[in-house]
Amino acid sequence: MSRLAILGAGVMGETLLAGLLRADWDAADIVVTDRRPERCTELVERYGVSAADNASAVGEASTVVVVVKPQDLGDLLAEIGPVVAEDALLVSLCAGVTTASIEQQIGRPVAVVRVMPNTPAQVDEGMAAISGGAHASSEQLAHVHSLLSATGRVVTVPEKYQDAVTAISGSGPAYLFYVVESMIEGGVQLGLPRDVSTELVVQTMFGSAHLLRETGRHPTELREMVTSPGGTTAAAVRTLENHGVRAAFMAAIESARDRSRLLSGG
Ligand SMILES: NC(=O)C1=CN([C@@H]2O[C@H](COP(=O)(O)OP(=O)(O)OC[C@H]3O[C@@H](n4cnc5c(N)ncnc54)[C@H](OP(=O)(O)O)[C@@H]3O)[C@@H](O)[C@H]2O)C=CC1
Ligand SMILES: O=C(O)[C@@H]1CCC=N1
Questions:
Q1: For the Pyrroline-5-carboxylate reductase dimerisation domain, which residue ranges apply (predicted)?
Q2: Interatomic CA distance for residues 126 and 124, integer angstroms
Q3: Residues in the chain with pLDDT values less than 50
Q4: 14, 93, 113, 145: which has the fewest Cβ within 10 Å?
Q5: 162, 188, 222 - which closes a domain
């Protein structure tokens, strides 16, 4: 029994599903579930996987990935708890929910691995951090590492870091899109046509990310390379500092970490 069940096929569930299929997983080895039957039909038609109800999907899977909102997880675990096989591996992508809380809700020793992925996985540039629960073996952790590697990079971290990881790489794409939106609006305000402003900003974001990763240079050094003495960039960065943008990012990241901590309680 080497089937994989994905319970909750929303944004992140579909992202994982599509990534596994791009990485040559066989659609016959994957079963999906969702609360809305029409969503299941959509995925069956789009990807050729099968769909089932939660209990049947869990019954036929050796690896069960739960990808519902943290607020929906309690009901889902109550439903599947009785049918999770003794040797099954439960993988949770739910923000904030601890492996201990899942183990406790299942009510018997079960292998759980907690994962924090992100949406760039849709283009195989994801960043996922994984942590094993009390009953997860190193082989099971390695299995999850290889699953997530289908959609990008994977790091293993102690679970105590997962709330911080969620605040940085889990939510992080949204902060960067927010910066992109703000810069596009800035260009429009200066009179650039919206499509021109968008192209300039998107390529600048992409090129800068590429430069960071390819050179391995510190962002401060790369920023200094752009900042001519008495020039335009220095004027802009001064304005960002005057508006407390760096402090705002730090406060925002703390808020995300705090919210993640609260989500385990539902
Ligand atoms: N989106 C992101 O960038 C990231 C999300 N995550 C985590 O992934 C999880 C899912 O998030 P996301 O994909 O964005 O959310 P979505 O709402 O897009 O997907 C969740 C899906 O699960 C379905 N669902 C809810 N309850 C059940 C159930 N009992 N049985 C079967 N399906 C069910 C929902 O149905 P319905 O539509 O009816 O509610 C929905 O289709 C969350 O826990 C989130 O913290 C982690 C990292 C990044
Ligand atoms: O906003 C959220 O709660 C989820 C977790 C990380 C990204 N999206």
A1: 159-261
A2: 6
A3: 1, 266
A4: 145
A5: 162
Query: Do 127 and 193 share a domain, yes or no?
Result: no
**Inter-residue contact 32 to 17 (CB < 8 Å):** yes
- Ligand 1: which residue has its CA nearest to atom 22? 8
Pair 39, 57 in one domain: yes
Please report whether residue 167 resides in a domain: no
If you search the block for the tokens 């990534």, which residue do you land on? 19
- ipTM strictly over 0.95? yes
Same domain, 223 and 191: yes
- Count CA atoms within 13 Å of residue 28 on its CB side: 1
What's the CA-to-centroid distance between 125 and ligand 1, angstroms? 20
Tally of structural domains, the chain: 2
Residues 132, 183 share a domain: no
Residues 6+ apart with CB under 8 A from 173: 118, 119, 120
Contact present, 54 and 7 (Cβ < 8 Å):
yes
Does residue 99 sit within a domain? yes
Tens digit of each residue's pLDDT (9 = 90 or more) over 156-204: 999 999 999 999 999 999 999 999 999 999 999 999 999 999 999 999 9
Q: How far is the CA of 171 from the centre of ligand 2 (A)?
A: 5
CA 116 to ligand 2: nearest atom? 6
10 is in an annotated binding site: yes
Our CA angle for 248, 250, 252, nearest 5°, is 65
Q: Which atom of ligand 2 is nearest to the CA of 259?
A: 3
48: number of Cβ within 10 Å:
12
